[in-house]
Design goal:
Length: 346
């Protein structure tokens, strides 16, 4: 059956919206392309996640209270948007990341293949917790063109890892095995990105550093990118964990750098990143325009909405009025940072 949503390129399976041609792939936080003004793009093919980490900044996973999740359906359509971005920005690194885990997309390999040979694609990285993953999946992704995995682990302690991830099936031992397989047997670059939860995993961070040194993790990039815990408005807060200041975070890294003789204070240049022209922004904060509702959004009171030119996707936020697909709403843009577009009814 052709529904209004499917006419726009959005169809739904339960709470998962499947995004297809001709739906625009720039403008939303949960799927498509995000440009933050460097010679790379964040590319998002899935917002799903099998874990419910206690500290998740985007509150993803089975315990999530999000209204809707998103999957891209069409790798060729996705490749066309990447080509368009390269035309405007020049050569680019691609980072498959998300407000979930990209490996939840069963066709991730297809999406990697679709962009690998595009002229101007400099490298492909997948940011993941490698759960659930197998050696076969890692091999297939590498074989389809992945140059690097950024892998998040926050402890090497199996029991603690299950608690922190909010999933008793999660096994950090298994993830460690996959990291070693990828690095030693396939020669893939690995960048480990532990989250420092002050007071909760201080010793664990040191153990992860020792593991990374011993296993010769890394490649052309530094092996470790320790992340700062930041309590986000819509994220989960790790109970009992206090957010430290950026200067305390820096001191923590400096201390560890000295202790282990390894680079931990990183800059964009360590990853070959430099400033680059931004994608043109046809819509700006303060503009008024008519938006057509094309489906439900990520959170309560949010909708997917598109302008008449169908060249960007908006998040339309409406607490007062409920809309259905096809409704045309006179709207005003209230946010356009990094091309992520949020509007409200006028
Ligand atoms: S932190 Fe990452 S892996 Fe954990 S629930 Fe959030 S998105 Fe999923």
């Amino acid at each position: 059956m052709v529904t209004l949503e499917s006419k726009f390129g959005v169809s739904s399976i339960g709470k998962v919206a499947i995004i297809s041609r001709p739906f625009p792939l720039v403008g939303h936080i949960a799927f498509g392309i995000i440009d933050r003004g460097y010679n790379n793009l964040q590319v998002r093919v899935s917002s799903l996640c099998p874990l419910s980490c206690l500290f998740c900044s985007v509150a993803a996973g089975p315990h999530s209270s999000r209204e809707n999740e998103f999957l891209l359906n069409d790798s060729e359509w996705f490749a066309e948007w990447v080509k368009m971005a390269i035309k405007e920005k020049g050569s680019l690194h691609l980072l498959f990341d998300g407000i979930g885990d990209p490996i939840t997309h069963r066709d991730l390999k297809k999406f990697v293949e679709a962009v690998k040979e595009i002229q101007g694609v400099l490298s492909i990285t997948v940011e993941t917790r490698l759960f659930p993953a197998s050696r076969n999946l890692v091999y297939e992704l590498w074989n389809s063109g992945v140059d690097r995995f950024n892998v998040s682990i926050d402890t090497l302690n199996e029991e603690k890892a299950k608690i922190l991830s909010g999933n008793s099936a999660y096994s950090v031992e298994r993830v460690r095995d996959l990291i070693l397989y990828a690095r030693k047997e396939l020669g893939v670059e690995i960048h480990i990105t532990p989250l420092w939860l002050p007071g909760l995993n201080d010793i664990d961070i040191e153990e992860i550093i020792s593991f990374a040194i011993k296993a010769d993790i890394g490649g052309r990039i530094p092996p470790l990118g320790i992340q700062k815990y930041v309590a986000h408005k819509y994220g989960r807060k790790a109970a009992g964990v206090k957010e430290v200041s950026w200067s305390d975070f820096r001191s923590f890294l400096e201390k560890l750098q000295k202790k282990f003789g390894i680079k931990l204070l990183l800059s964009p240049e360590d990853f070959g990143l430099e400033k680059a022209p931004r994608l043109h922004q046809p819509y700006r904060m303060g503009d008024s325009l008519k938006l057509t509702v094309a489906g439900k959004g990520l959170l309560k009171h949010e909708y997917l909405a598109i302008p008449p030119k169908k060249d960007r996707v908006f998040t339309l936020v409406s607490k007062k009025t409920n809309f259905t697909s096809g409704d045309v709403v006179a709207s005003k843009i209230i946010r356009d940072k990094d091309g992520i577009l949020i509007a409200v009814p006028k």
